[in-house]
Amino acid sequence: MIPRYIVDFDLDALPVYETDVIVIGAGIAGLFAALEASRRNKRVLMITKKSLFDSNTRYAQGGIAAVISDEDSFEFHRQDTLIAGAGLCDPEAVDVLVHEGPQGVQDLIRYGTQFDEENGLLALTKEGAHSQRRILHANGDATGYEIVRALAEKVKTDSRIEVWEDHFALDLLTEDGECHGALVMKPGGARVAVRGLATVLCTGGTGQLYRYTTNPEVATGDGIAMAYRAGAVIRDMEFVQFHPTSLCYPGAPRFLISEAVRGEGAVLRNIRGERFMEKYHPQLELAPRDVVARAIVSEMEATKSTYVYIDITHESPERIKHRFPNIYEFCLNYGLDMTSDWIPVAPAAHYMMGGVRTDLNGETNIARLFACGEVSSTGVHGANRLASNSLSEAIVFGRRIAERIGSLTPLEGKLRTSCKTDRTAGPMGAVIERRLKLQKVMVRYVGLRRNGAGLQKGLEELKRQEPLFQTALTKREELEFANLLTCALLTAEAALSREESRGAHYREDFPERDDLRWQKHTILHRESGISEEVVGHV
After folding, report:
1. Catalytic one among 78, 262, 289, 368?
2. pLDDT at 128 over 90
């Protein structure tokens, strides 16, 4: 039911913009990949549907993981990543990440990122499931914002990079198994074809699939949906990470309370004031995120509450304000003082481990099409991303993508693709209602805890929306909803297929991990359907 193209178009009637590298999306992945391509003398066009500052990266609090300390080692980082990934990490991809991560940090510093220091050295903290202190941070708990600030300033002054803000990428344009560019909608609704020797998806994840998420409104799965329609392999969509601790307070948005708060000693309490993590995992509050999130839900159910508390009041007020200035100020705006109050929190959708499958150079099964950052599935994260590995992944693979693009040959011929179907012209109805309904289905049936009957019911409800794909979509919110529906269908189908519990995917009807049957990836392809792939094989 999902068509090759989401809109009808005739390239002969459209203007064509030519460049070397097309980067779709912003965030650390898009900004860094653009700068690295420019550094190799490529002309770059960045397309972002809002501004350079509207991305998940901007809201990343905790930091970026890399082996910096003499007490740490590549092997320690490797093992921590593999353990968190629950048997689905690609060991080669993890090796690339841990060995090239430190250089990536130096690249960020070269581009102007100012990480926090202590006694003249880079300050390091520890987060859940890390065995060592290896998390670099900036301005206490505003690491993502500082990285975006530095990279965006460089991008804006780079003569080889052009930025199109408020432009919406509709679809990828392919010819003979190659990606030749993208069809783009301009702010006023007019369309333009963009052609380049390489296209890099940096569009982020799918947080808006769920009613409660730490992601901004732009996280609507556009890149995954576009790639799927174009014939790219999509992998492991069942693995959605829910952050255990987002602010849950009347009148306040689901603001992220960083894992670093627990890394610095905060404890979790139920509404009776009792610590409870000892019942669930020997690492207590520093257990892997999926364990902590499910433990919180269990306590909420046992105490008939909609939240638990995170408590760091035993630390000095000065230390809390210095280490977490943004979280402290945000909570204070709603009458909550971290230095003296327990903060009410609950899990919220946070990160998509799956996405567009790539090789170790960030290239997809479609030649000249690359994916970087959360939209991609490089093999680093497996079934459960290790905290703060995502920013490292973006810079490591962003640089590799730029290097690979340097070896591509020029495009030949011209764009010939067009699409003409019999789409109905009627309105699709109120998008906000459809979106809320989709989010409720995902929370109820494809959330933190799943079972076969619920997944089947959720999939059936989602499929009732499929006639949408045969209608004429013109508004951005309609197109975003179509992309969300695509990602919802893929996520539910993958979750129904995997009959075991592993990492962020928990099946109540199959609560045990099954390595004999399921130490494999779930593969989704528009033409060949759903299949499996051995770990480490692309």
Report:
1. 289
2. no
**Burial of 8: CB neighbours in 10 Å, binned 0-12, 13-18, 19+:** middle
Quote the pLDDT of residue 254: 87
How many Å from the N-terminal Cα to the C-terminal Cα in the chain? 27
Cα 308 from Cα 247, distance rounded (Å): 10
The answer to whether 277 touches 268, Cβ cutoff 8 Å, is: yes
CB of 372 closer than 8 Å to CB of 412: no
289: annotated active-site residue: yes
Q: Taking the CB of residue 340, how many other CB atoms lie within 10 A of it? A: 9
pLDDT at 144 over 90: no
Q: What is the pLDDT of residue 289?
A: 80
d(CA 305, CA 301): 6
d(CA 359, CA 95): 13
Measured CA to CA, the distance from residue 442 to residue 445 in angstroms comes to 5
Please state the three-class secondary structure of 291-323 as a single string.
Answer: HHHHHHHHHHHHCCCCCEEEECCCCCHHHHHHH
Name the amino acid, one letter, at 243.
Answer: H
Residue keyed to tokens 């909420």? 300
* Per-residue pLDDT, 538: 62
- Of 531, 502, 520, 530, the closest CA to residue 241 belongs to 502
Average pLDDT, the chain: 93
**CA separation (Å) from 241 to 140, 279, 506?**
24, 22, 11
Gap between the Cα atoms of 50 and 164, Å rounded: 9
What lies within 8 Å, CB to CB, of 66 at 6+ separation is 77, 101, 102, 104, 105, 134, 136, 392
| CA gap 115, 481 in Å, rounded | 37
Q: How many C-beta atoms surround the C-beta of residue 41 within 10 A?
A: 9
Q: What is the pLDDT of residue 99?
A: 98
- Cα–Cα distance measured from residue 408 to residue 406, given in angstroms and rounded to the nearest whole number: 6
DSSP string, 409-466: PPP-S----EE----B-S----HHHHHHHHHHHHHHHSSSSB-HHHHHHHHHHHHTTG
b/e 263-283 (16+ beta carbons within 10 angstroms → b): bbebbbbbbeeeebbeebeee
Q: Is the pLDDT of residue 247 over 80?
A: yes
CA-only gyration radius of the chain, Å: 22
Contact by Cβ (8 Å): 376, 350:
no
What pLDDT, on a 0 to 100 scale, did the predictor assign at position 61?
62
- pTM, full prediction: 0.94
State the number of CA atoms in the 13 A half-sphere of 377 facing the CB: 33
> For the residues 74-78, what does the mean pLDDT come to?
97
C-alpha distance from residue 131 to each of 102, 179, 237, 380, 427 (Å): 17, 41, 28, 18, 54
